[in-house]
């Protein structure tokens, strides 16, 4: 009996050290990976869990590669896709137009994430809130790829998605990029900055109906920070909309939304300062 217990313990600790037991019970959005994909989490079994993909990139000496990792933005362990170019972005949204992943989802599904991390997905509003609320400022990256594979990008610095009590209100700072600024400027006066999140079952928008339910060719808009309604919407499955850059005339195929710490406030080291030699 005693010996069996000892063996059992040794077996358990082997499982734990190889990470085989470490994932499934803890990562709160593990439903974004199939059981098969869960084996390929790149930092499985590591003791130190990074706060986000940038943290991971930095501690790897800029060596970490793209893929799925465990991160811990606040108290919650989650899985996320890391795009390691430009210092490690944590991907919060990826859509392929007309793919089979449905973006017409409920408040609860947008809250906790849906889809597949290695494919089309929404990371989850709770985790987007945890990531962007610091410590430190975060920025939002947008990547749009049109049907001719032409890429446009943009960044809002800083970004904050407030908590669920605030209906995940979006707060955006200064914009720069090759895409138009479709979230804080719109010729038709649809502003997404400062809007609360709306889903088909929770209407927080400024329209007399629910913007998330409005259909284009039979497909509803999906969850988004609608005004009344949109100058941009990256969650409508059949048309990616970003003002003049992506719409039903100028078709886009893919988008990514991602976050990483802001580099607006950089620590200036004495060595970086130009010194006048007299
Ligand atoms: C997506 O499907 C719609 C409806 O079938 C079609 O009109 C549109 O061209 C498709 N979009 C792309 C980028 O292929
Ligand atoms: Ca409304």
Can you tell me the CATH architecture? Alpha-Beta Complex
What is the total number of structural domains?
Answer: 1
Unreliable stretches:
267-273
Helix content: 10-25%
CATH class category: Alpha Beta
Examine the coordinates and then state which fold CATH places here, giving the name of the CATH topology: Gamma Fibrinogen, Chain A, domain 1
GO cellular component, one term: extracellular space
Domain Fibrinogen C-terminal: 44-263
Keywords: Signal
InterPro entries: Fibrinogen-like_C (IPR036056), Fibrinogen_a/b/g_C_1 (IPR014716), Fibrinogen_a/b/g_C_dom (IPR002181), Fibrinogen_C-term_domain (IPR050373)
What does this structure look like?
Residues 1-22 form the signal peptide. Keywords: Signal. InterPro entries: Fibrinogen-like_C, Fibrinogen_a/b/g_C_1, Fibrinogen_a/b/g_C_dom, Fibrinogen_C-term_domain. This is Fibrinogen C-terminal domain-containing protein. It holds the Pfam family Fibrinogen_C. The chain has 278 residues and is an alpha+beta fold. The chain has a single domain, classed as Gamma Fibrinogen, chain A, domain 1 (Gamma Fibrinogen, Chain A, domain 1, Alpha-Beta Complex), CATH 3.90.215. The protein has helices at 2-17, 35-38, 53-59, 107-112, 125-132, and strands at 67-71, 78-83, 89-96, 114-115, 121-122, 138-146, 151-161, 170-177, 215-216, 219-220, 232-233, 241-242, 252-261. Strands 1, 2, 3, 4, 5, 6, 7, 8 and 13 form a nine-stranded antiparallel beta sheet that branches. It starts with a helix and ends in a 17-residue tail after the last strand. Mean pLDDT is 89; it is low at 267-273. The site of 2-acetamido-2-deoxy-beta-D-glucopyranose has 7 residues, from loops.
